[in-house]
Every structure is written in structure tokens, then in C-alpha cells.
Design goal:
Shape: globular
CATH topology: Beta-carbonic Anhydrase, Chain A
Function: Catalyzes the reversible hydration of carbon dioxide to form bicarbonate.
Family: Belongs to the beta-class carbonic anhydrase family.
Radius of gyration: 18 Å
Number of domains: 1
Largest sheet: 5 strands, mixed
Number of strands: 5
Keywords: Lyase, Zinc
CATH architecture: 3-Layer(aba) Sandwich
Order of helices and strands: HHEHEHEHHHHEE
Distance between the termini: 9 Å
CATH superfamily: Carbonic anhydrase
Organism: Arthrobacter koreensis
Strand content: 5-15%
Catalytic activity: hydrogencarbonate + H(+) = CO2 + H2O
CATH class: Alpha Beta
Length: 221
């Protein structure tokens, strides 16, 4: 196992961060989670500072706990969650903070199948009936993804989730100069993942920026 895969060493490049997440998710799927960085010494070490290696912007769904499905612990990831991973100014500010201040090398947009918010947006498109209250705001922001999926001949809500995840990742880069500059420089990459509730697997559905390892032979340590 290479040094940057140690639970105590934070990845510093997009490729390293992506590998750490993949390996953690594979352990979770296989039922061999290690639950790293969850002890008292780790808690004490984080009192005065944090050094997360990724920011995960995901749906608020109770079945989508980022630290669990990627087998992570305290201080490993900066997490932002809204229903349907809908963006607003607070979300963009949080993501810019994670990149500009905390220096995370990877942004993850995390959607999941059977998403209630995407299902509600699909229902609105199907029926023309708009939900009341602030749920309407969620539906309005997701509707373009539902329509884009339909233009591509996709009618299943899970396919719409994938489209929404892709579009959300693209909009983050388009909306934030700080994030787009970090991606252009190679300091940060953005990935879209779609999580399967039954299997526990997070599949890559989009990527912006390089996830390739550096030319240095990482396996050599």
C-alpha cells in the first residue's frame, strides 16, 4: 500500500484523492470497512486545524452519509449537503472555501438513485403541478436536468439523477471563477458520482480536470 493511502496521510493531488475515495468505497461495498481516523487521538489532532483532501457536495438523503460510504473519518472530507444536491450562493461559498482556504484537490458531486428531489421535479414536468413552499425552489433548480435527460430519450428517474449530477458538476465550474481557475491549473478536479443504494457503490459519471497520476511513479512510494 502506498504512503498516500495511509489513513493518516492526506492525499494532495486530484488523482490521489480520487484513488482514496475509490478504495474506501470498494471496502464499504465489500463489507470490509476499516473506519479510519475515528479514534480519540484523531479527534484531538483536529482541534486547531483541519486538512480535508476532498469536498463532497451531495444530497441530504439519510441513506447517503459520505464518510460511511467512502470509509473515512474525522477531518478527511469537507461535506456540503442539500436536497437533490441543489446549488445556491451558500453552497458555492462553501465549495469556494474548501478550495480557496482549505486547498482540497477534489470536488465530488454525489447523487444517488431513487432521489426524492429529482422524482419531485420529474412529477412536476409530467403533471404541471408545482409543489408548495420552498420545495418549489428545489424543483425549479432540478427541472432543467429532467428536461435535458428527456431530450436525450431518458425517462427513468435514475437516468435523470445521472444527468442532474453531470449538469451540477458543470455548473459549479461555470459559476465559480475560483473553482474554474483551480481546475484549469490542475490543483483541483471535479467528479460526478452516482450512488447505488442497494449495492453501496458510487459510480463515476463525469469528470472535469485531470485525474491522472503525476509522472512520478507513485507505486515506488
Amino acid at each position: 500500500m502506498t504512503e498516500f493511502n495511509s489513513p493518516l496521510t492526506a492525499p494532495t493531488t486530484p488523482a490521489q484523492a480520487w484513488q482514496r475515495l475509490r478504495e474506501g468505497n470498494e471496502r464499504f461495498v465489500a463489507g470490509t470497512s476499516r473506519h479510519p481516523n475515528q479514534d480519540a487521538p484523531r479527534r484531538s489532532s483536529l482541534v486547531n486545524e483541519q486538512n480535508p483532501f476532498a469536498v463532497i457536495f451531495g444530497c441530504s438523503d439519510s441513506r447517503l452519509a459520505a464518510e460511511i460510504i467512502f470509509d473515512l473519518g474525522l477531518g478527511d472530507v469537507f461535506v456540503v449537503r442539500t436536497a437533490g444536491q441543489v446549488t445556491d450562493d451558500a453552497v458555492l461559498g462553501s465549495l469556494e472555501y474548501s478550495v480557496g482556504v482549505l486547498g482540497v484537490p477534489l470536488i465530488v458531486v454525489l447523487g444517488h438513485d431513487s432521489c426524492g428531489a429529482v422524482t419531485a421535479a420529474k412529477h412536476t414536468v409530467d403533471t404541471g403541478s408545482m409543489p408548495a413552499g420552498y420545495v418549489r425552489n428545489l424543483v425549479e433548480r432540478i427541472t432543467p436536468s429532467v428536461l435535458a435527460a428527456r431530450r436525450n430519450g431518458l425517462e427513468d428517474v435514475n437516468d435523470m439523477v445521472v444527468e442532474h449530477t453531470r449538469q451540477t458538476a458543470e455548473r459549479l465550474v461555470e459559476s465559480s471563477r475560483l473553482i474554474s481557475d483551480a481546475v484549469a491549473s490542475g490543483e483541483t478536479a471535479v467528479v460526478g458520482l452516482s450512488y447505488r443504494l442497494a449495492e453501496g457503490r458510487a459510480d463515476l459519471v463525469s469528470s472535469i480536470g485531470s485525474l491522472e497520476p503525476e509522472t512520478t511513479d507513485l507505486a515506488a512510494g
